[in-house]
Specification:
Largest sheet: none
Oligomer: single chain
Distance between the termini: 34 Å
Structural class: mainly alpha
Radius of gyration: 18 Å
Order of helices and strands: HHHHHHHHH
Shape: elongated
């Protein structure tokens, strides 16, 4: 794969990932409310979700994906319900109790499944990989090495961008220490999550 094509993909993908959307909104809101506990699992879920759609696009399975549209509608509904659940839990969380009473492993697994389901049903992600990406990169004529290089670039770019959002959100969260400020953060985060759920549901 030409280096120029790889760099073009990386730049366009980084811009798409960094632009505000349901996934970024949910990630930031989660960190602002609960800190970084379980956030690695959430990010891994988002990465696996993007890799799944990349694989579908790279293998020319767009038509097959359309044939299984009901399954993706179910995934979309699952992502919406997950965000609504997080919004409700965040709004009603007592100030000072920012994480559910679960083991780190359980929390990580739930976060992973939440990030995965939300990403697989996110119209923004689907549109990028099935509509925009094929117009930027000649996927059918790429070698296996080229596709693997793109996948590795995807993981690097997405992990870096999401990591920067996590660091910024966690720093902002630590700046607010009063109970009143934390309550406002919880309510604001819940509103953002509910908005992200609505954005996915209405597209």
């Amino acid at each position: 794969m030409p280096l120029s094509s790889l760099l073009l993909f990386a730049l366009i993908y980084a811009g798409a990932v960094a632009s505000p959307g349901p996934g970024i909104a949910a990630l930031v809101a989660r960190v602002m409310t609960s800190g970084t506990r379980g956030i690695l699992g959430f990010i891994l879920g988002m990465i696996v979700g993007d890799l799944t759609w990349f694989t579908i696009a790279a293998c020319g399975f767009a038509l097959l994906a359309q044939a299984f549209a009901p399954a993706f509608v179910a995934l979309k509904a699952g992502g919406v319900l997950y965000l609504v659940y997080l919004a409700w839990k965040t709004w009603n969380a007592p100030v000072g109790t920012t994480a559910p009473a679960a083991s780190p492993r359980q929390d990580a697994v739930r976060a992973f499944l939440g990030g995965l389901t939300m990403t697989l049903g996110n119209p923004k992600v689907i549109l990028f990989f099935l509509a925009l990406l094929p117009s930027v990169v000649d996927l059918p004529h790429l070698s296996t090495l080229g596709l693997l290089t793109m996948a590795a670039t995807l993981v690097s770019v997405l992990g870096t961008v999401l990591g920067l959002y996590v660091l910024a959100a966690d720093r902002a969260r630590r700046a607010f220490t009063s109970r009143r400020a934390r309550r406002r953060i919880n309510q604001g985060s819940a509103t953002v999550m509910a908005g992200a759920a609505a954005a996915i549901a209405l597209r």
